[in-house]
Amino acid sequence: MIPIQVSIYGLFDSHYWTSYRFTHVSGSNICTSRGVSTCRQCLAIHPSCAWCFKEEFGQGGSSVSRCDLKQNLLDGGCTKGGLEFPFSSLSVQENTPLSDKASGAADDVTQIRPQKLSLTLRPDDARRFTVTVKQVEDYPVDLYYLMDLSYSMKDDLARLRSLGNQLAAAMGRTTSNLRMGFGAFVDKPLSPYMYTYPEEAISNPCHGIQTRCLPQFGYKHVLSLTKQVERFTEEVAKQQVSRNRDSPEGGFDAVIQAVVCKDKIGWRTDASHLLVFTTDATTHVALDGRLAGLVQPNDGQCHIGRDNNYDKSSTLDYPSLALITEKMSENNINLIFAVTNNVMPLYQNYSQLIPGTTVGTLSDDSGNVIQLILDAYERIRSKVELELLGVPEELALSFNATCLNGELIQGLKSCSGLKIGDTVSFSVEARLRGCPKEKNRTFTIKPVGFKDALEVTVHFACGCDCEATAQPESPLCNQGNGTYECGVCQCHPGRLGDRCECADGDYRPSDQGNCSPKPEDPICGGRGNCVCGQCSCHTSGFGKVWGKYCECDDFNCLRFKGEICSGHGKCDCGFCKCGSDWMGENCNCTTRTDTCMSSMGLLCSGRGQCVCGACECTQPGAYGATCERCPTCPDACSIKKECVECQHFKRGRLFEEKSCARICRDEIQKSPIADTNIIHPNPHLSPSLFPALSCFLLSLSDCPKGPDILVVLMAVAGAILFLGLAGLLIWKLLVTVHDRREFAKFEEERAKAKWDTANNPLYKGATTTFTNVTYRGNS
After folding, report:
1. In sequence order, what are the residues at sequence separation of 6 or more whose Cβ sits closer than 8 angstroms to the Cβ of residue 88?
2. Where does the chain cross the membrane (predicted)?
3. Which of 418, 439, 587, 760 could disulfide-pair with 422, CB 3.0 to 4.6 Å?
4. Residue 353: DSSP 8-state
5. HSE-up (13 A, CA, CB side) for residue 132
6. Does the reported pTM lie above 0.70?
7. Which of the 8 DSSP states describes residue 214?
8. What's the pLDDT score for residue 698?
């Protein structure tokens, strides 16, 4: 086994090079080892293989096969004009520069380039090209307001009547070319969805609650898109609610009609299309119509009658999510679910299944609907996501995104956190995994919700030009015993030989030397008979056997879990030819990357590589099925903390240096989710930590403001003073109590003491009395 390497170069934009590695097998290369006998089979082996259709090639003892590497064929005597060697190529057919601003009109606005490409691909070959997308400023907007008019939405309708002018004024800050329309829905006017008893309930569904309302209807188109805002307000003011019986509504019937009835609604080709869907209840989906006996699936066609009502409401089933997704993509509609909190989880699940959809929480009376629409439109405009339409099964596409700050993200076909006017690019690799029946196919790559698209025409280089000059029953094939095609005879059944000169029953022992590669090898590898110097291979119960020496078959290939080529490819002369989305020696390695996508839409959370459909984490500390867990990795919010402070709180280092606009290109969006359980050391910032590139600022209504520093200092000082005084008072109290106890004890002991009274013999009084003996009294 001696490896050699040959390179074929394909160049486009970023100097994309493709190299192929070949392996010698028993002295031959991959082109000569497969035992092919036609030009088409040769080209399907590998992009490096060429075929020589020159009639005299191989004559005169030349041992070079007609299917070989190009240089080998030239060295063997084939001329360049006698070669079939198509090569993959790419040409740009339309490449109009991107527009900077729409100026309220979009007739000549370009948001994606290039617009047309032509690809020529050989089997198992690839070419790479770049798609650039830009969100232009002041792009026209069509806004169609689709409202649930069941009885529970009565207060919402009353509120909307006063919001028409405010909604137009708010949207006018994003575009100078706005048109608004209005439609309403309830549910199918059939039992069990409507009240049928008593009879009065048919004309007045509110009969049971002692009031009047409109008869139940499925969907009615009220106002086509118009620039006259006062018309919107007038028509909304005329509307009245109705009432249905069951909890879910028939909103998806209304959605599909509002999407496909372009002429009735008035959708412009060159505008952003916003369909606002407001409800406070769940909605019926496909197959729910069988409860009313409706078995005919929704056909996705427009059925709005002259009275502007949906006239197939009682005939067709509800549409499926797949049908809604298909029609929204075809008509470039962005759906905004404005729903109440009780049904928010359901519509969030819907939004994950329907591309181009956003969800917002509607207040009980729809008072926040204007801000909700503005936020949803901002989220739509801040994201670019590519969608694919009409891609052949045999063509495998892979994407790499270059979003903000020139950062390359592998396996991603969307960018978020964009500002209007930002430009992003996607590197797309197209690889042909097989040969379709058609010679060419056209598919489309377009951003979700955009009218602009890239049209790619792929020419499948699976056949040979020399096939067009084939000669049926040619004299060159032993007087018409075969078709002369691309330099060789394709013999009729029962005929053999280079020129179909032999029949199955012919036998000449002298020709047996041509039926084995070496004299010591068994004739035809022991799997066939040598007839007219050519091997006639035996049939096998395991599969087909073929080749010059019967060396090829379709059952001796590598197996995986007991299946040939893992069940994902075909065995071709000992080699597995993998089907679409599979690769590897035994086709057990998938090329799909959807299983590696994290919940945030990043390939392996931006921390690893997708290998065979599984993430291999490359960033230290990352683990998990999609490398979503990484305790030691810096999170997006920690990295972007300074930008959050600068953009939302007008403070911090970047704000002081006036470098916020230059550094903080990916604006941090405020999330509509109010999560009161998030705690962050900074009382002003509550970032929700999502993997890799996403960070949202959550506004938490129950988070108290930070304490006043002066108050804290005074409180601390007061507490210290109070504790000191309290300590002194307690000490004084204890001392006083102790003294009083000691004095009382002394008094008590003194009272108990008893003493005898006597004069001190040594004591001499202070006065002494003497008697004058000579004194005799008065004379």
Report:
1. 10, 47, 119, 120, 121, 122, 125, 126, 127, 461
2. 709-731
3. 418
4. H
5. 14
6. no
7. P
8. 60
